[in-house]
User: What shape does this take?
Amino acid sequence: MIPALATTGLTRRFGGLVAVDGVSLAIPAGARHALIGPNGAGKTTLINLLTGVLAPSAGDVSLRGERITALAQHQRVKLGLARTFQVSSLFPGLTVAESVMMAVLERRGVGGRWLGGFPRDPEALEEAAAIIGDLGLAQDGNKRPPEMAYGQRRLLEIALALATKPKVLLLDEPAAGIPSRESIGVLEAIAALPREVTVLFIEHDMNLVFRFAERITVMVGGRVLAEGTPAEIARDERVKAVYLGREASHG
Assistant: This one.
């Protein structure tokens, strides 16, 4: 089967520093795939290469079999590749419903309707409500980000990404800064997304990784050290030596 997202020999150099070094991945459709590794392993740089924030020094990126290496960020989004960031960036003056509604209208190319006030677009309203409901935010529809718990704000950020109708969703530390009692809820919502959405996420909380990832790639020094199921990664002596340490008990 054609992978939802794939790289071949993906490399990025910054002068004499090789931040990503010949990374080849094949993420199948519907996957819940984690990318882990110590600080400086090249994980966020890899995500930036996948999304077009950075151009590779060598190698290729493919989305559902289509080479996208030379495409701009917005072109990749239109083809179905969306991401979130470590630091949330939301519209503080808009409610949850208004924020997602605006994102839906932008995707449909009718964002200008927003200028006249809250638009009366039943289809867009229905789509926004479905996204909000899927992420457990239905009761927060009339809240604005400053009124929400941090975990709920992260879910809103994911909702905005989902409004672009992605085939592949890249999440850069979705649980970062969230209290542990909330982080499980965030990952549960991500895991429960429709299988039409492939999820690749960076996460440092190994409890969350081993609970929600179906497959894990470990990066060290810009390279892929290992890839496998959570049980395989937990048993891998190389991974234990350079990263997991005591966390390896999750296997």
Summary: Residues 1-80+166-251 form a domain with the Rossmann fold fold (CATH 3.40.50.300). The CA atoms of residues 11 and 21 lie 5 Å apart. Residues 246-251 have pLDDT under 50 and may be disordered.
